[in-house]
């Protein structure tokens, strides 16, 4: 809790506590340790009500960190709300700034990276019921790396590390 701030639990409201944290919302590991390659990422599930068809999450990538290179059948809708960074969507690498919107189509390789000097925080809207992410095979990586911009961008090292 922030110093001197009294937080009360309301049934329908969760107060913003500062620094992109909310009352009653747990800061979780991005993925289970060793499940996929990533570096310095946290996840918060903001809304996951069974009555909603969607889940709304906040991800934060620490400076120099990155999410997993992955794809899946479900769509992602992303809005940057903190810092800056870059993202891969298919074969395109984009700079990301505050309030930028990113649409991730089905079965499209994607990855997010924070700038080296500040975090990248983004809201992510997905279907509540969705498939599991697919990691790239060696063949997929060879194909992705044919594009020099993609090859320079992607990180595929050991889980929890860069590489």
TrEMBL record:
Gene3D superfamilies per UniProt? Jelly Rolls (2.60.120.10)
InterPro entries for the chain: Cupin_2, RmlC-like_jellyroll, RmlC_Cupin_sf
User: Where in the numbering of this chain does the Cupin type-2 domain appear?
Assistant: 58-125
Q: Where is the signal peptide?
A: none
Domain of life the protein comes from: Bacteria
What is this protein identified as? Cupin domain protein
